[in-house]
Design goal:
about 160 residues; binds uridine-5'-diphosphate; Nucleoside diphosphate kinase; binds magnesium ion; globular; nucleotide-binding; ATP-binding; about 40% helix; nucleoside diphosphate kinase activity
Length: about 160
């Protein structure tokens, strides 16, 4: 029995989820929001936003040296995105599972990318890859007054 491991699995985390421009253009915003809403995470931020080039570059700065970087920046700035902050126990890894593999053809059916996309360069949604990046990305995409803390009535029906 490893109590510290259990404690870490019980951690409330914040994750930055974004419907990319193809998801907005294809009318998938409601469908994508719905997956996280139904799972039982708490929405703390939501907006439609035209991303400036500088912000896209900062968000994806770890990929700066990749050959696909310029195309990725063009893609993310090609139309409005839907920015979301979600919170919940184990939310970062769980959201990544709901999203599925980076390449939609390898993503499992039932995942967002597995169900709704066919190409890595048009994979409809972003999700933070660690709790640290969740915090970093939420701070990058949202101003403080845009986030909202609230108690969901369903909370006692989600966790005992
Ligand atoms: N991407 C791409 N070509 C690649 C790898 C990634 O166009 O070969 C894009 C894709 O949109 C991906 C994003 O860059 O979602 C960020 O890449 P990452 O490896 O972080 O994938 P993710 O965390 O989004 O699954
Ligand atoms: Mg990533």
């Amino acid at each position: 029995f490893l109590p510290h491991l259990v404690a870490s699995m019980e951690q409330v985390e914040e994750t930055y989820i974004m419907v990319k421009p193809d998801g907005v253009q294809r009318g998938l915003v409601g469908e994508i929001i719905s997956r996280f809403e139904k799972k039982g995470f708490r929405l703390t931020g939501l907006k439609l936003f035209q991303c400036p080039k500088e912000l896209a570059e900062e968000h994806y700065k770890d990929l700066k040296t990749k050959s696909f970087f310029p195309k990725l920046i063009n893609y993310i700035t090609s139309g409005p995105v839907v920015c979301m902050a979600w919170e919940g126990v184990g939310a970062v890894a769980s959201a990544r599972k709901l999203i599925g593999s980076t390449n939609p053809l390898q993503a499992e059916p039932g995942t967002i990318r597995g169900d709704l996309a066919v190409q890595t360069g048009r994979n409809v949604v972003h999700g933070s890859d660690s709790p640290e990046n969740g915090k970093r990305e939420i701070a990058l995409w949202f101003k403080e007054g845009e986030l909202c803390q609230w108690t969901a009535v369903q909370a006692p029906w989600l966790r005992e």
